[in-house]
Amino acid sequence: MVGCAPKQEEPVTQDQPKEEFKYLVDEFADLRIMRYQIPDWNQLSMQQKSYIYYLGEAAKCGRDILFDQNFKYNLKIRKTLEAVLNSYQGDRENEEFQNFVVYAKRVFFSNGIHHHYAEDKFFPEISETYFAELVKGSDANLLPLNEGETVDDFIAFLTPVVFDKELYKMRRSSEEDIIAHSAVNFYEGDINKAEVEDYYNKVREPNDATPISYGLNSKLVKKDGKIYEDVYKADGLYGEAITAIIGWLKKANEVAENESQRAYTQKLIDYYTTGDLKTWDEYNIAWVQDSVSHIDYVNGFIEDYNDPMGMKATWEAIVDYKDLEATVRSNTISENAQWFEDNSPVDPRFKKEECKGVSAKSIIVTTLGGDCFPSPPIGINLPNADWIRKDYGSKSVTITNLMEAYDKAADECPRSALKEFAYSQEEVDLCKKYGSDADVVHTNLHECLGHGSGKLLPGTQPGALKEFSSTLEEARADLFGLYYLADPKMVELGVMPDAEAYKAEYCSYIRNGMMSQLARVELGKDVTESHMQNRKLISEWCYEKGKDANVIEKKVENGKTYFIVNDFEALRGLFGELLAEIQRIKSEGDYAAGKAIVEKYAVKVDQDLHKEVKERYNALGLKPYGGFINPEIVPVMENGQVVDYRVDYPSDFLQQHLKYGKEYSFLPANNN
Ligand SMILES: [Zn+2]
Fold it and tell me: How far from 135 is each of 139, 241, 394, CA to CA, in Å?
């Protein structure tokens, strides 16, 4: 569901003036914690607010499911951390306790003991002895002990799970056997990859044009030599949490905005009740066709990234409503799709005669849950089933209030990557003035038009570019956006504020592609992720091709390297040229040329520059990964009646998770 977007208790009431709202509220390990705002809350009707409230409660009820899916002992560990945080009687001021708190926050952030992004196990910076002391000094009634288990037995069991470097090393492993080496909890018992493949090959219906998403909502279990699916449903696995979700969805349906919402939410309830994947498809078909409702949500087992086999989905949820102003902008872009196609710099043979823009909307999220919390995507494109996308379309959304929060939080941070890597104050000012707007428009162009533009020549196989296809496809969409960002048409359509604004995106794109994104790559490693490869490919290609004319200039001052865009018009020309070439590669299925261009520009890193970037980035103490605290939507009571819903903005990350642990925990942790 991650879109292709280029990128990551003192209640404060909503009436507080915007200037005082603090976005960046906590930093620890490699993480930064932000808050996001829900703008125009009071312009919603009471019915809409109730609908959002009920959906928001449903979005919080599956939190335990994700912890358990990520690793079988995550709930046990989380409940132990909660017990310590809620009841430990000893000193809380010393450094070791603070280190314990950091570990707890990391577990809350990652929904488990493996890094949310790198997927490797991380460790508390405390001793095993101190850990035992903490557990013993806490209320034993709060610990997830098994029947008859003593606290000492429990500590002996849990200590290696938390501390042993070799045990449960990776959440998802690419080592053979990928099932046996992965700690993720989608498979149980002594089961291997071949057995999993064999099981699904047998149940799969061949030549089905509308296949269900096999294995999506179940754990595959091998017990006494038998292999079967333990299905996630109301009276099955995770039933207690699923029942709670259903309860809130039913309440939501009483105040839904329209019949269409009511109908698909009922489908979702049926699916959660039975676990039937045909019903899940029916739900998606109805959901994707609703483009008129103001309020929308995602709630279910959606993305399969965490499964080494790419079948089983983690639970996630968001609740949102349309950002009307920003949606007007993406609609404008979509409506002019044909003009953009006709005027693009690619060979006419590769252009679409009839071009339909993807209708995309911009949304404001009100609650994040499951795998979208605390670290959400900023763009979403669903549903995932290919045949539903083909026959019924997909919903592509950009989350504007989260993008805003990322920008504002970066502004609040005294250490700035922009200031460090931009060459001049002029460039910093330009990026501050236009950066957010230009970035959103680039994302819109990429999503609404870029991916949909162009066509294959007759006879070209869609999969012809093989392992280079996703990098080249992202590059094509990015280039389409970069090229048009500078077009006078954008100002004419009212999509860009003026003729200077695109320059901010050009500067930051080159800076990022040539340099700053390397901060996320380990020293000595190649660039492997396709979005990062695409940015590197585009930047390096343009740098080389524009070298004689000094389009992009490399400067080294005081041991620091900078890349400066000297000629914006010429850079636009280069983007156009590269777009034409990559479109040709795609349209003709020219595998050899695709391979050559990716391997030359997108993969290998200049070791000295890489080292320099890492050092500069680390010296700033910047945290590469961001996540959020949810606002709290609170019923306002008068004489026993709910008369309104208020939005509070808590600022304590730990407190929110302890509260969720108390109020939204439904699954037992002591049954394994
Ligand atoms: Zn993309």
Answer: 8, 27, 49
